[in-house]
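seq as requested:
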Amino acid sequence: MISRKSEQEGERIAKRIARAGLCSRREAEQWIFAGRVEVNGNPIASPALNVSAADRIKVDGKPLPERERTRLFLYHKPRGLVTSARDPEGRPTLFERLPKHLPRLVSIGRLDLNSEGLLLLTNDGGLARVLELPKTRWLRRYRVRAHGRVSQAALDALAAGITVDGIRYGPIEARLDREQGSNLWLTFAMREGKNREIRNVLGALGLQVNRLIRISFGPFRLGEMAEGAVEEVATRVLREQIGERVAQEAGADFAAPVLQRAADAPRADKTPDRPVQVRRGVLTDRKGRRVPVERVSAAKEERPPKHRTRRHHGRDARKRERP
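struct tokens:
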């Protein structure tokens, strides 16, 4: 039974689950509707419930993990991965590619299947929710390759916003960088990220996007990160960059310990065992300071030698055409 005090003074059950790093708040609500969550031994059917620290919460029959320190990771998302824990169409997800020793993570915003570049991941669903909000005002920059022709004047007009198929998109900073055959390279910057926004906006200008790379999100940059690599942002840097207001609104906890991951704790994803490779390096923040980070990626498997052949497509080709 849930106490009256919990209902009056606690926090929403979906918010508590998200703060534990299992999933986003929206996904937690879906889990509740699916009957996967119980409180004090009783299954619940609605997310309209407040819980306190005294309430015992289980997901899939397993206790909610103890909350750990708020952490943030930079991830270089490759093309061809879905930004979700599971995909109903069976397509590969980025969470299946992450090293297993990492904590349970949720993405801050999304990059669609054919987009690539910088994606922020966190173990704190509250932080993810706040950083996704347009009012947080974090600028997102993209390098875009598109087929067709457009003038800088037409791009400048996007600074006033644009409506496409009944959807209003906010101000966009757009710059024409160069032409490459029948394609153009552009730089886009915006403070919101609606679904397929860049593709839809450029489509309205007669352009077809064929490559989309996010190069920065707020103060964090993709830089020279290898495709598929993960870097953790130091706690001190994270606190400085998000600021006190955002930290309080998100309910971030920088004093909690970093917990050892439990093998039997409930997970949002099914990550296979794989060896990992950790490399140490530095990250330059927006104030020009060099901050130590760890670069984590899946170790390459040893395979029998093959006859070398010339390749003219895939990653090699993309490397040649990278701006």
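The chain is about 20% helix and 30% strand.
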